[in-house]
Amino acid sequence: IILVGKTGVGKSTAGNVILGKEVFKREVSPKSVTSECKKAVGVVESREITVVDTPGKDIEECIVVQSVPGPHAILLVLNVNARFTEEEKAAVKWIEDNFGPDSSLYTILLFTHTNQLEGKSLDQYISESKDLQRLKQQCGGRYHGFNNQLKDRSQVSELLQKIEKMVQENGGQHYTNEMYEEAQRRLEEERKRVEEEPLTGNYELLDTQKYEQLLILFRLKQLKNRLNVFY
């Protein structure tokens, strides 16, 4: 299980809830306590579960290296108390762009701090936001809520059931390095196409955000290749 999401949404706490013990460091801070991938293994309901807690950014290594041979579930963590940002609205697309179109088949929305919804159900909370409804649809309608209480094991049982159902729908397969490599190949092709496109009047119509993302990805690749670090 891979936990992804922006800094401060409760990824580390969610990992602790899943494993039923404090294994990931957490504290109240505007900065990310998790600065690199952290992996922990535990036995939950008689099965061995591996959970990978990711930093807010640079999660590629976490998914490709730390979760070999590949994750069965990518949990996109959202805090019901936090403002839903533009970054989060595009989160599923970002996952698909970087890890391939099939990656959304392995993704579940995980809402934290649902005990603070003030009498409102999670369904009601999602129904009040078109952006959340769209995000839910992009994940095949899969979502779950955590109240962030370690002692409440029923919420973990329900999550594992949803993951098991998703795995069965994916033919029992996990996300593979081959899927990642194919996604990276497509990104590289898109980067080349963008850089080679002449500076014509149509150039300004390109998606600036995507162009910048591709350039950043390419520069990171160049740097990591120089350092002989697997990417």
Automatic annotation (TrEMBL):
Keywords assigned by UniProt, alphabetized = GTP-binding, Nucleotide-binding
Residue limits of the AIG1-type G domain? Answer: 1-184
* Molecular-function annotations in GO: GTP binding
Signal sequence, renumbered to the chain: none
Q: Which PROSITE patterns match?
A: G_AIG1 (PS51720)
Gene3D superfamilies, A to Z: P-loop containing nucleotide triphosphate hydrolases
Record flagged with keyword Nucleotide-binding: yes
One Pfam annotation reads AIG1
The Swiss-Prot or TrEMBL record describes its family as follows: Belongs to the TRAFAC class TrmE-Era-EngA-EngB-Septin-like GTPase superfamily. AIG1/Toc34/Toc159-like paraseptin GTPase family. IAN subfamily.
**What protein name is recorded for this chain?**
AIG1-type G domain-containing protein
Organism of origin: Neogobius melanostomus
> Which classification does the entry list for the species?
Eukaryota, Metazoa, Chordata, Craniata, Vertebrata
